[in-house]
């Protein structure tokens, strides 16, 4: 074993300069092929949206001219729904962070009896199927007059992000040195002020990750939008596209334009906030 | 030695930091609880209450008239009897099983292969890994709609390509024939789940020291032996997490199937999730919908117990 490790650096360096070129290039080619295959459906979505024809025979593999007719029709029918999605998702993020942040802080720092039970509870929520929640929630919402309301949908969508965000924030806050929090408390700041002035700024990255994922969960939500709304009063774009494809069978160009528009947040976040996305996927699932 | 010192001093420091100012007397404790209370209340309302209410609802008779009269009389086991003897329930259960197992096997195998491939770290591999996340990040309904377009029997590019290459002679009715629909839905769900499996397994793979991986290969064990004999056993905790989380999210899936096939054709892709939706929100029989929902929860619970037990055993082994 020790001989192995000792031999390693030299071996690696020798193989390095020559090997990386050949093996690396081979991997690069194979990686590109994998990428092209797996992302092809999304490419085809954009390609269809940018061309006037519908059948595969009419479509070219690359859009030769930019035809925005499909996007114009899609925008005309879905602009309002996209705005609804945005409002609901932002609302859900706000509710989620307001509820999850103090809880995560308390679970990380105060040694409350029952901490383990609460943490265990957040994990258990993952196994409750959404349709079961919707089944009961719809009936409760009828009694509370929350069906077809922004508030009702925002509260339901926030529930998609709260357990995840609590777990994520708690894992981060446990690692904040006790001395830092202690110093603020000695200065006479109360618990809430310590949380807002000291802990929240330090947890910025974890808060962004939690908020970002809650935004994506709420933006992608279809189940609650479908079941908690019976009229057109509150219609996010996921529900919009579901109805649109039913009403415009065959008008694939416009449908794919709607699909492209609703994928924009995910694509933008992936480019702009890549490191937070990566942190969220590994942090939220393993802890 | 330094490790030991750190370990013994750490709790002391923490205790002191708890002590200052906090001095959790009775009022202090109450104030501390107020931090957690909103979250606990939220989870009780949005997860606890539905669990209980579904059990109660499954013994009640809901009809479309219930929403005018407000009456849903208790009818004992009638809903349970009606659902459990329904052929559609049996076939939904069977489809759910096929869908879940098929999806997990496909997602895990391909995700693991990609995780191994990307740990070779070549130029642009990081960029590629994050681009591959897209299918998982876009709304599932959108993914379903896109695949409906790609798999369309008449105008879809998949049939066009297969026919052009001479692989098949006539267009395959991917989503429109009862014989093909379930397999197509599984394939699409595999596509959606690959990124998640890849990312988590890649993370697990990075935690195995490079020396161990290289030693396994240099020992003369072929890459297959090295993988199954050394690497996979070391990744057991991560593999368990991926499979259990995958199971929980796959068994209850609804969005994707509604977007792709609406449970059809001829109920060929009806699963417990879509069947619950059917009963509750289309037939307005929330009582029978609740029965199917409860079955779904029971299945999840069995796996949660297996998961927790596996975790506990794993912890004890490590000790």
From TrEMBL, chain A:
Localization per Swiss-Prot or TrEMBL: Cell membrane
GO biological process assignments: transmembrane transport
Segments traversing the membrane: 20-44, 82-106, 118-138, 150-173, 194-219, 252-273
Domain called ABC transmembrane type-1: residue spans: 82-273
Coiled-coil regions listed: none
Keyword Coiled coil belongs to the record: no
Membrane topology term: Multi-pass membrane protein
Keywords (A to Z) from UniProt: Cell membrane, Membrane, Transmembrane, Transmembrane helix, Transport
Record flagged with keyword Cell cycle: no
PROSITE patterns for this protein: ABC_TM1 (PS50928)
Superkingdom of origin: Bacteria
Predominant location category: membrane
InterPro entries: BP-dep_ABC_trans_perm, MetI-like, MetI-like_sf
One GO location term (cellular component): plasma membrane
UniProt family annotation: Belongs to the binding-protein-dependent transport system permease family.
Name the record gives this protein: Carbohydrate ABC transporter membrane protein 2, CUT1 family
From TrEMBL, chain B:
Keyword Signal recorded: no
CDD domains, per database record: TM_PBP2 (cd06261)
Predominant localisation class: membrane
Annotated keywords: Cell membrane, Membrane, Transmembrane, Transmembrane helix, Transport
Gene3D superfamilies: MetI-like
Membrane topology, record value: Multi-pass membrane protein
ABC transmembrane type-1 domain mapped to chain residues: 93-307
GO terms classed as biological process: transmembrane transport
Cellular component aspect of the GO annotation: plasma membrane
Stated name of the protein: Carbohydrate ABC transporter membrane protein 1, CUT1 family (TC 3.A.1.1.-)
Lineage, opening ranks: Bacteria, Bacillati, Actinomycetota, Actinomycetes, Streptosporangiales
Transmembrane segments: 33-52, 93-118, 130-147, 181-205, 226-248, 289-310
Similarity field: Belongs to the binding-protein-dependent transport system permease family.
Compartments, record wording: Cell membrane
SUPFAM superfamilies registered for this protein in UniProt: MetI-like
């Amino acid at each position: 074993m020790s001989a192995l490790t000792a031999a390693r650096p030299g071996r690696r360096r020798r193989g390095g300069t020559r090997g990386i070129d050949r093996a690396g290039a081979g991997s690069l080619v194979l990686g590109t092929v994998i990428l092209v295959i797996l992302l092809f459906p999304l490419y085809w979505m954009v390609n269809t949206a940018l061309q006037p024809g519908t059948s595969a025979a009419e479509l070219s593999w690359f859009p030769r001219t930019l035809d925005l007719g499909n996007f114009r029709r899609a925008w005309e029918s879905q602009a309002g729904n996209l705005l609804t999605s945005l409002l609901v998702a932002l609302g859900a993020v706000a509710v989620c962070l307001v509820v999850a942040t103090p809880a995560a802080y308390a679970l990380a720092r105060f040694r409350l009896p029952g901490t383990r039970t609460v943490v265990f509870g957040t994990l258990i929520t993952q196994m409750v199927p959404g349709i079961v929640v919707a089944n009961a929630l719809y009936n409760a919402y009828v009694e509370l007059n929350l069906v077809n309301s922004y508030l009702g949908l925002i509260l339901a969508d926030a529930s998609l992000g709260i357990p995840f965000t609590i777990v994520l924030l708690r894992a981060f806050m446990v690692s904040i040195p006790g001395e830092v929090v202690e110093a603020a408390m000695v200065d006479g700041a109360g618990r809430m002020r310590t949380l807002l002035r000291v802990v929240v700024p330090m947890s910025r990255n974890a808060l962004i990750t939690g908020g970002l994922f809650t935004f994506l969960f709420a933006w992608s939500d279809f189940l609650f939008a479908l079941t908690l709304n019976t009229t057109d009063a509150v219609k996010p774009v996921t529900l919009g596209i579901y109805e649109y494809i039913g009403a415009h069978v065959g008008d694939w160009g416009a449908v794919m334009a709607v699909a492209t528009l609703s994928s924009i947040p995910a694509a933008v976040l992936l480019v702009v906030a890549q490191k937070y996305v990566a942190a969220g996927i590994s942090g939220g699932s393993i802890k | 030695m330094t490790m030991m010192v750190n370990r013994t001093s750490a709790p002391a420091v923490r205790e002191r930091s708890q002590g200052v100012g906090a001095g959790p007397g009775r009022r202090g404790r109450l104030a501390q609880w107020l931090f957690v209370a909103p979250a606990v209340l939220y989870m009780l309302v949005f997860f606890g209450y539905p669990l209980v209410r579904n059990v109660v609802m499954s013994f009640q008779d809901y009809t479309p008239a219930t929403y005018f009269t407000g009456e849903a009389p208790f009818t004992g086991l009638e809903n349970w009897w009606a659902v459990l003897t329904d052929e559609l329930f049996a076939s939904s259960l069977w489809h759910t099983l096929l869908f879940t197992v098929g999806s997990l096997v496909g997602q895990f195998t391909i995700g693991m292969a990609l995780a191994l491939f990307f740990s070779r770290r070549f130029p642009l591999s990081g960029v590629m890994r994050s681009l591959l996340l897209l299918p998982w990040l876009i709304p599932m309904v959108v993914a379903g709609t896109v695949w409906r377009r790609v798999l369309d029997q008449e105008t879809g590019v998949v049939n066009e390509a297969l026919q052009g290459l001479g692989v098949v002679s006539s267009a395959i009715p991917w989503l429109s024939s009862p014989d093909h629909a379930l397999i197509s839905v599984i394939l699409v769900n595999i596509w959606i789940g690959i990124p998640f499996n890849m990312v988590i397994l890649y993370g697990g793979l990075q935690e195995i020291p490079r020396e161990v991986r290289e030693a396994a290969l240099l020992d003369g064990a072929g890459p297959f032996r090295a993988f199954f004999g050394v690497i996979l056993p070391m990744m057991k905790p991560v593999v368990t997490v991926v499979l259990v989380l995958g199971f929980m999210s796959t068994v209850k899936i609804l969005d994707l199937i509604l977007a792709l096939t609406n449970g059809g054709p001829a109920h060929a892709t009806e699963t417990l999730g879509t069947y619950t939706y059917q009963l509750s929100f289309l037939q307005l029989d929330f009582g029978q919908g609740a029965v199917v929902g409860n079955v779904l929860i029971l299945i999840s619970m069995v796996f949660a117990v297996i998961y927790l037990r596996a975790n506990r055993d794993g912890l004890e082994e490590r000790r």
